[in-house]
Amino acid sequence: MIRPLLSRFPARKHRTQTIAAVAVLGAVGVAATACGGGGAGGAGGGAGGRAASATGGSSAPSTSEARPSSPSSLSSPSSPASPSSPSSPTPSPRTNADVDCSVAKCIALTFDDGPGPDTGRLLDVLKAQNVPATFFVLGDQAVKYPSLVHREYAEGNEVGNHTWDHKDLSRLPAAAVQDEITRSADAIAATGIPRPTLVRPPYGAVDDTVRTVAGAPFIMWRVDPEDWKYPDPARVADQIVGHAKPGRIVLSHDTHKTTVDATPAVIQRLKHQGYTFVTVSTLMKGVGLRNGTSYFNRPPAITGGGS
Ligand SMILES: [Zn+2]
């Protein structure tokens, strides 16, 4: 279960993946990556140079979306079989939920692959800083750490779906893609929170089949500190802050201790620059997300394409 598909995505030796792709609304198809280290499926996103279609760009923004190592189990699994959430918590009001990111200087921190052993510490940091984030949770982690998934939501963060066990969806038949997404959504909902509506495909890998059956918009990323590759808090913080721009989505992983270590500095520095932290849904408010469409950042207000 450790990085089952990593072989498809050889470790990158270049830095150009630091920023993933740019959504170019209205564009059809994807400009090929300029990055030699990118994986199959056109997955390599250059340093902001690859354009992916917001109407269904065919490839991943970056391949650095790594599977975590197996965490230890903290609590007993909850059944993923009951998608309803009779005990849904009343979440604290979503911090900054009323912010209009078409005007404000917004940025969305996202954390993938968890929950894991360091997620609670990250939640402490976010809560102390009054910063909301978006967690793209794996179903098989949700059943190991249901209380952490519940806490993520209850403390004002957003919880999205990162599939059941981090398979490359673009290599699966339709029924298996659906199962990966549905099973994970069930497990997340079974923690007592609303069923997730956003999907982040592992490795950012999607194809026509995935786009057709996913039944959700795909939330990619625009800033990638490659935290899985460089377990150095200072570097992670520098990469995120250095590539931050209004409307961008930042990818990182709460499964890496060093990423959690980096987060206080990231928040402090970006706050100092005037950023408002928002969840992905707040960032995208008014955009009109469409199922099967990939989003890498908040689209510019004026584009030639979709909305
Ligand atoms: Zn992942």
UniProtKB/TrEMBL annotation:
Which SUPFAM superfamilies does the entry link to? Glycoside hydrolase/deacetylase
Q: What's one GO MF term for it?
A: hydrolase activity, acting on carbon-nitrogen (but not peptide) bonds
- Bias (Gly residues) occurs at 40-49
Recorded GO cellular component terms are:
membrane
**What Pfam families does the annotation carry?**
Polysacc_deac_1 (PF01522)
Please give the Gene3D superfamilies that the UniProt record associates with this protein: Glycoside hydrolase/deacetylase
Return the protein name: Polysaccharide deacetylase
Organism, scientific name:
Catenulispora acidiphila (strain DSM 44928 / JCM 14897 / NBRC 102108 / NRRL B-24433 / ID139908)
Q: What is the lineage of its organism?
A: Bacteria, Bacillati, Actinomycetota, Actinomycetes, Catenulisporales
